[in-house]
Amino acid sequence: MPVHLGSVAVTTHDGYTVTRFADGKEVHAHHAEQPGQADTARSLGYRDAVAMNRDHDLTHSLLAYWLGLPCSPTLRDVASGAPATEIHYLEEAAVLAIQRFANATGVPLLEVARTISRGA
Predict the structure, then answer these.
(1) Residue closest to 17 by CA, chosen among 34, 29, 3
(2) DSSP character for 26?
(3) Where in the chain are the domains?
(4) Does the predicted model carry a pTM greater than 0.85?
């Protein structure tokens, strides 16, 4: 079941996450570990890269929602095939910092998104 963060719907499946934009464009992100991600996952407080990747695109959408943006600029550009910009690097750093902080404080990001989606 998708969580709705503004006009964006994020659905986390076993093995991948789908971010769907209002115009129907989508980003599919696989949770499988990529080379070099194990160390990053540990530094962010995850047990493995799969868990980190499961939260990652969701966190992009959470950040955009919290900032009042219509969607994640990074994910939107990925969906459109646009090249990376400085905003992508800034957003990525912010997303990783949120993931680390959430893990350090025991906050489950998917539950946060579900609460927002329910309007609570």
Answers:
(1) 29
(2) E
(3) 3-118
(4) yes
